[in-house]
Amino acid sequence: MSMRPVIVIGAGIIGASITYHLAVRGADVTLVDAGLPGAGATRHSFGWIGRSPGDSSPAGELRALGRSHWERLAREVRGLEVHWSGALVWGEHFAGRGPRDTHAATREPRLVEPPRHAEFRPDDGWVDPVRATESLISAAREHGASVRFGAPVTRLVTTRDGAVDGVELGQEILAASTVAVAAGVGSTALCATAGVNLPMLSSPVVMVRLRASSGLVRGIVANDQFEARQDVDGTVLIPLDYDKHTSTDELRRTGEEALRVFMASFTGADDATLVSAEIGWRPMMADEKPRVGYAEASGLYVAVAHPGITLASVIGHAAAEEILARTDRDEPAAHRSPGTA
């Protein structure tokens, strides 16, 4: 391998996973980001790890592998907490092919009106996206990775023949054997500096955070009216569709409506309060498929995917394999089992 390091751009969950998987294999890797770990799209992620039962599509298979890799990471990475709480889902939007479950009142005893028929997905779980990102980066550093935060990349550096061989940080240039772009919605602009087209969708989401008494929501609850999960400190996350909000007042009203729905849905939620309602931008390719692999410009590796949390574990593993092998396989490494080296 070249003496020049691999540079990973983007300290979100996918960039952190790639950096960790490279570092644990002994690679010389540097992670750079303009902000702090998980400060971008990762912060606004719901953190749900799972897939619909019976989904045999490539995306469904990748989600299943993502779960297996999260199990592995929970064993490997000190401080990484994966909560395998299961998910209780019902309604038209979440209707799957799993068996009907009639124990909703037992699964989620604080529901005011438990559904008579729901689907319980026992293999689903969640992570706190920012804490998980920080844990992966901390573990990467323990294995020798370097980090540069507060270091915005202004452009990718290319050779005369168009190969990517470094990044520009203001007046500083860092040379690289491979540059992995995992910068979320900023990936398009970065790739363009190397003449690479990376078409992405504009996919905003509103993430509402509430503060409530601990223990109101046991796992993930999702239906046509709302989705919710509760962290161990009492924080409740409710993701909502973006409705062309144009002011902070509109966002606040959306958050207040989510609070009312939550209070009406769970007993003991009368003291719940609104913490924030913020817009996050989900990295999503125009064809809505993950884009993971070497780009047409030599030395440039791209990792953009939604849902980023579920897929970050398997993408990190696959990207490290391909970058260290300097090849793009016909069968992506992401589709192989977690134990495959």
UniProtKB/TrEMBL annotation:
A matching Pfam family: DAO
UniProt keyword Oxidoreductase, yes or no: yes
Residue intervals of the FAD dependent oxidoreductase domain: 6-321
InterPro entries xref list: FAD-dep_OxRdtase (IPR006076), FAD/NAD-bd_sf (IPR036188)
Highest taxon listed in the record's lineage: Bacteria
Keywords of this entry: Oxidoreductase
Bilayer-crossing regions: none
Official protein name in the record: Glycine/D-amino acid oxidase-like deaminating enzyme
Organism: Microbacterium murale
Lineage: Bacteria, Bacillati, Actinomycetota, Actinomycetes, Micrococcales
